[in-house]
Design goal:
The protein is α/β, with parallel strands linked by helices. It has a domain of 89 residues: 3-Layer(aba) Sandwich (Rossmann fold). The chain is built from 10 helices and 5 strands, in the order βαααααααβββαβαα. The strands form 2 sheets. A 3-stranded parallel sheet has the order 1-4-5, sandwiched between helices. Strands 2-3 form a two-stranded antiparallel ribbon. A hairpin with a 3-residue loop joins β2 and β3. The relative contact order is 0.17.
Length: 182
Amino acid sequence: NRVKHLILVEPWGFPERPDNAEHERPIPIWIKALGAILSPFNPLAGLRIAGPFGLSLVQRLRPDFKRKYSSMFDDNTVAEYIYHCNVQSPSGETAFKNMTIPYGWAKRPMLQRISQMDQDIPITVVYGARSCIDGNSGSTIQSLRPNSYVKTIAILGAGHYVYADQPEDFNEKVKDICDSVD
């Protein structure tokens, strides 16, 4: 009852895993075996195990961070941010692991429940145009909420981290939404 407008940015967990997902894009046996071996562990446990060497590990494995954000930072700020966010107690990581079924599908897809939300609450779904997250969820939400305001915005030139990839465009869109609510 306190929400005036819901902005979903790169929302994961909306679509259901298709019955033919395995047939559409078969998963190699070695990936299945590796997944079975690693399934008890959180994905970033290795970063925590690396301890003080974790930061250099991030810098070596993802040198693209420094290049990608060179217009904003001329040092290792982004790698340090990624490291410090992920070396902490893995509460978000644990939550994500508990909400998924194999290969990244939601255990309880939101599309099954979105129609239960108050129809008077407007929703804007923001995606990066180059994101790996399914951008069709916005139109599916609209079909499940035919009497509600639902808008989908694709930010050109942005991937999954839309707010970092195109910060000016992203901030402008969010500001416009906030201004329309006030």
